[in-house]
């Protein structure tokens, strides 16, 4: 494996549980970054959501954050309970929907397309073809309202996050970072590489279900145009 | 009912923020100084979750359109009602036609103007907080402008008009003095933040872990309601980590590969993937909010038990303000 990817290959063989102050706890699943693990995370989220003092159980990428209604008084007890629940968490059956997203790659709204091509030793056309030639599962929503974390990207386009996050990228920015890809749903800071842009809207604050994407959905990017 | 008669922008309506929308990627949001917000609501006998005006840029002026009890909390600024000076952390009665002004910031960053009953704007996703990034919540999802009329909700337990002179609370800085720092000592010019180590704490090299707790850190102008970016020594890891995105909460200290830490605040992203060296404890987040850009902070590692104790102490203070204010109100009845 290329040394550029060495950081991606560190796998933990045990679940890692850590605290985010006294207000939240983070559970990171052991093993590879793959869909079957994520399905167990979704199942775990369903289970934990009903526990006492849990405000929300929020899936990330093969991990789960728990937020507390009031500070957790006994983190070690919760830790043990989580590990036991993880052992029991199995597949999560869901019929997600398929969402097609037309993308214009490159140009002003895809400012890091060339950087990313350089990082991956590919031509711009190759990079776009690899990015668009795959159905992605919506692993989780997060970062900002309506943003779907999509996985898993082709190994050839795994790239480290940017050294310094950019202060703002516009809504509809299609980007890659680590083994993930995503479309931003509103303007804001980002540490990823922005490849292109879509006009699709992802967030509707006044609707009861405010997001276009839900965990378990499938996203397909369609290359509308490449601006070289 | 009050009208904004003068503002230069950036002030918004905020409450304690949005719960249970993290799964949609929606930040907690709400007041940067949650202690000040709760104090104002306690002084007026408002619901704990009532919304107030978060003032960010001074001066700001309000015309009182109908008589109302008001409280001003948070930053130490010059508060005047028709030219008469009012103390910070004070509740008072304002008559129709009077002008309330907040100017000349002495210390702190955010002041809160509360109306009895709380501010009446529609709830969006369970909160009245303004989220500027996505333009929802508060008043049409935007910052307040000259001419905006702000209404209050009916009071659950109406407060009689507060007697002339009003009443107030001791400032949080006096009630909850910051602990002494191991290398900085007791210095009110530098904000001391206690933190608990987070998952990647031990991946930082020894020099960086030492620097974290000994160096003064400056809050840079690239700071916002989403996060405070710090300038100081570079924090380096023993090994590069490229992590899977996961949930983060306000207080989390992320360190991007560039080595300059960012403390997440109210409007922080709900998830991220930069390594986390620690989390500033809940009880110290108001101190961070009230530290101005360009000023300094320092970090001190703490224990989980101490973090819980500090949290309880903060809540005890708010409860006390609420209880004393209620006693005062019952006296007036």
From TrEMBL, chain A:
One of its GO terms (molecular function) is ATP binding. Coiled coil: none annotated. SMART domains: AHS1. Pfam families: CT_C_D. Keywords: ATP-binding, Hydrolase, Nucleotide-binding. Gene3D superfamilies: Cyclophilin-like (2.40.100.10). Residues 15-213 form the Carboxyltransferase domain. It comes from the Bacteria. This is Sensor histidine kinase inhibitor, KipI family. It comes from Cohaesibacter marisflavi.
Automatic annotation (TrEMBL), chain B:
The keyword DNA damage does not apply. Residues 23-317 form the Carboxyltransferase domain. It comes from the Bacteria. InterPro entries: CT_A_B (IPR003778), Cyclophilin-like_dom_sf (IPR029000), PxpC (IPR052708). The keyword Membrane does not apply. SMART domains: AHS2 (SM00797). GO terms for molecular function: ATP binding; hydrolase activity. Keywords: ATP-binding, Hydrolase, Nucleotide-binding. PANTHER family: 5-OXOPROLINASE SUBUNIT C. This is Biotin-dependent carboxylase uncharacterized domain-containing protein. It comes from Cohaesibacter marisflavi.
């Amino acid at each position: 494996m290329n040394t550029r990817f060495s950081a991606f290959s560190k796998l933990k063989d045990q679940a890692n549980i850590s605290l985010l102050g006294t207000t939240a706890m983070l559970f990171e699943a052991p093993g590879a970054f793959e869909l079957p693990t994520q399905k167990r995370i979704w199942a775990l989220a369903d289970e934990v959501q009903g526990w006492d003092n849990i405000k929300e159980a929020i899936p990330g990428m093969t991990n789960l954050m728990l937020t507390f209604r009031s500070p957790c008084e006994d983190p070690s007890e919760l830790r043990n309970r989580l590990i036991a629940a993880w052992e029991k968490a199995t597949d999560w059956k869901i019929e997600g929907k398929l969402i097609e997203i037309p993308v214009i790659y490159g140009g002003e709204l895809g400012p890091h397309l060339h950087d990313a091509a350089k990082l991956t030793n590919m031509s711009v056309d190759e990079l776009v073809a690899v990015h668009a030639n795959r159905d992605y599962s919506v692993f989780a929503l997060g970062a900002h309202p309506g943003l779907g974390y999509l996985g898993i990207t082709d190994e050839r386009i795994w790239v480290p996050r940017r050294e310094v996050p950019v202060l703002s990228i516009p809504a509809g920015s299609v980007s890659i970072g680590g083994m993930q890809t995503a479309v931003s749903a509103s303007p804001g800071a980002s540490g990823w590489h922005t490849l292109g842009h879509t006009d699709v809207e992802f967030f509707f604050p006044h609707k009861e279900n405010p997001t276009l994407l839900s965990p378990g959905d499938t996203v397909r990017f369609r290359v509308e145009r490449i601006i070289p | 009912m009050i009208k904004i008669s003068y503002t230069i922008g950036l002030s918004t309506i905020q409450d304690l923020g949005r719960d249970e929308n993290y799964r949609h990627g929606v930040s907690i949001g709400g007041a940067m100084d949650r202690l000040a917000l709760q104090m104002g609501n306690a002084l007026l006998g408002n619901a704990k979750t009532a919304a107030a005006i978060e003032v960010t840029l001074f001066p700001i002026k309000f015309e009182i359109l109908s008589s109302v009890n008001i409280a001003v909390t948070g930053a130490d600024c010059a508060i005047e009602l028709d030219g008469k000076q009012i103390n910070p952390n004070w509740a008072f009665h304002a008559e129709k036609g009077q002008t309330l002004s907040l100017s000349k910031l002495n210390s702190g960053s955010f002041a809160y103007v509360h109306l009895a009953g709380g501010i009446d704007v529609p709830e969006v996703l369970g909160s009245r907080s303004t989220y500027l990034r996505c333009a929802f919540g508060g008043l049409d999802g935007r910052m307040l402008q000259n001419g905006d009329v702000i209404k209050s909700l009916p009071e659950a337990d109406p407060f009689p008009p507060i007697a002339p002179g009003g009443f107030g609370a001791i400032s949080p800085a006096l009630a909850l003095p910051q602990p002494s720092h191991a290398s900085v000592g007791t210095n009110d010019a530098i904000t001391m933040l206690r933190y608990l180590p987070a998952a990647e704490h031990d991946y930082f090299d020894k020099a960086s872990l030492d620097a974290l707790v000994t160096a003064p850190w400056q809050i840079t102008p690239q700071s916002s309601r989403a996060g405070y970016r710090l300038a100081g020594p570079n924090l380096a890891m023993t090994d590069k980590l490229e992590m899977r995105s996961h949930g983060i909460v306000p207080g989390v200290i992320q360190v991007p590969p560039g080595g300059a830490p960012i403390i997440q605040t109210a409007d922080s992203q709900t998830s991220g993937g930069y390594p986390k060296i620690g989390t500033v404890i809940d009880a110290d987040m108001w101190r961070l909010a009230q530290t101005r850009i360009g000023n300094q902070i320092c970090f001190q590692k703490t224990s989980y038990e101490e973090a819980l104790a500090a949290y309880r102490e903060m809540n005890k203070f708010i409860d006390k303000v609420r209880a004393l204010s209620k006693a005062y109100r019952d006296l007036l009845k």
